[in-house]
Amino acid sequence: MALRNLPTLCCVLLLVGCAAPKPVAVSKPQAFRDVDQEISYHVFMGELATGRGDPKDAVQEYQAAANLSTDPTLSAHAALLAYGDGDITDALALAKRWQSLAPKSADATHMKAVLEARQGESLAAAHDLSALVRSGADPNYMAGARLLEQEVDAAHGLPVLQALVADAPKSAEAHYALGHAAMEYKRYDLAEREARAALAIDPHSEEPLILLARALVAEGRPEQALPLVQARVRSAAGDLPLDLAYAALLSEAKHEVESKQEFESILRAHPDNADALYTLGLMALQDKDTSASRGYFERLLKTGKRSDDASYFLGSIAETEKRYPDALDRYRRVDDGDHWLAAQAGIGRSLVKSGVPSAASEFFDGLVADDPQSTVDIRLAEGQVFTDVGQPKRALDVYNAALQATPGDQDLLYARALVLEQDGDATAAENDLSDILKHAPDDVDALNALGYTLTLHTTRYREAQSYIQRALALQPDDPAIMDSMGWVEHQLGQDSQALDYLQKAYAEQPDPEIAAHLIEVMLATGDKDGAHALWLKASADDPDNPALTALTPRFQP
């Protein structure tokens, strides 16, 4: 199970000049000389609270300062602190003050809309996003849709966009934004309907056509999807964005050979196309052809585009090939972007694998010192490093220390629970996951992890099933949850139901662990030939996977 992502709104909304004023070191006077002194005092105390890892006190102090000040940057900073601490009510109040002090700030309105959506105030959020489009602050409805996709779940995000469509029923852009979000939320039926609605208004638009095709592929109808885009590709002749979209669609439809051919064709016509180089590099990496992958990423690096992505994957290849000095050099060149934190983890792993785990710990300590507000993210990455290299005790030390500094942080509790379970302390893992669910009863990851942990380590299968059922109701298409449900059904003796869940999970995600579960259930139902065939295929893909190697005696004469 992958660790959940922490909220990204701070990254999305941060403005140049939106930092809090530098605090003035003052002791609390008997009476403040004036309002500026009182504001400075609260800012100073807020910074002290931040420095000692006390986000609740920090929010309280900055909120007091913001309420006294007419400076919108204070309200912005306080709102972001409250949001980061999960205090949606205070964050919304502060975002409203921020917007009132800076009515032309798109960031203030974006944050207010996100918080309104999370509070279930979909009409208010829709009004805010619509106003941004009307004023020209947002170029179209997609700006708001992407923000909702990043920050809000489907139950709270889709009603906002549906309200936008209701307000602008003849806007192809509004229908497309709703369809795009539905696709991201895996509501493929809704994505299909909204893509068709957008095309009915604007038949020549390419984006709704691609969205319609993607939705059809996700619904298991590639035979309907591919001809739609192929016909447009042929008629457009040389439309690079459309060619790239078609090549990607072929990959989504699992037509990997044809997809690779399309990307190679694009690359012949456009030798420096960054998207084609990047995708072909990933495809070669997936095929374990590191030489070809390295070639594509080195070419990508020379284009000057996506250099952080190229450096990250070149570092990953070097690490896989145990060329740790080269891996460190490549990872250190990743300055920003989606792979920055993964690159820092790569540096940590490379240091540990080079035989200097203490240097890895010092490296992560340095990252925390440079950016204390990212402490949780960095410690999660550090703990994962030690888990990856087979040192769970050190990972637990990292998480325990981080939880002392940030008590009750749900991401740290979740990460620690996974390591505790793998290290054999299922009771402690259960306690951490139960603590998460006390505060967030619909936390899908915790529900699934707790159900799976109980399935593996206890005979409380009915209780385990109830947790997994709740997770599946929230995310019915998640292969990890389907795998958990299949395995608990197997433990309950319901092998026909187990087989159905596991087959769906493996079709969605051909993971070796899911394959091992499916093989076990196939054997239990008497399908030894099918189980053997799947074991051979999965073992060829992952020859060293312990779950698959453990099955070897089952297929020996």
What is the count of β-strands? 0
Largest sheet: none
Distance between the termini: 34 Å
Secondary-structure class: mainly alpha
Radius of gyration (CA) equals 26 Å
> In which range does the helix fraction lie?
over 70%
Mean pLDDT: 91
Low-confidence stretches: 1-26
Structure annotation, total helices? 32
How does the overall form come out from the CA principal axes? globular
Task: Summarize the SSE layout with pairings.
Layout lengths: L8 H5 L21 H17 L3 H14 L3 H13 L3 H14 L4 H13 L3 H14 L5 H11 L2 H14 L4 H13 L3 H14 L4 H13 L3 H15 L3 H13 L3 H14 L4 H13 L3 H14 L3 H14 L3 H9 L7 H14 L3 H14 L4 H14 L3 H14 L4 H13 L3 H14 L4 H14 L3 H14 L4 H13 L3 H14 L3 H13 L3 H14 L4 H4 L8
Helix pairs in contact: 2-3, 3-4, 4-5, 5-6, 6-7, 7-9, 8-10, 9-10, 10-11, 10-12, 11-12, 12-13, 12-14, 13-14, 14-15, 15-16, 16-17, 17-18, 18-19, 18-20, 19-20, 20-21, 20-22, 21-22, 22-23, 22-24, 23-24, 24-25, 25-26, 26-27, 26-28, 27-28, 28-29, 28-30, 29-30, 30-31
What does this structure look like?
- It is a single chain.
- This protein is mainly α and 557 residues long.
- 75% of the residues lie in helices and 0% in strands.
- It has helices at 9-13, 35-51, 55-68, 72-84, 88-101, 106-118, 122-135, 141-151, 154-167, 172-184, 188-201, 206-218, 222-236, 240-252, 256-269, 274-286, 290-303, 307-320, 324-332, 340-353, 357-370, 375-388, 392-405, 410-422, 426-439, 444-457, 461-474, 479-491, 495-508, 512-524, 528-541, 546-549.
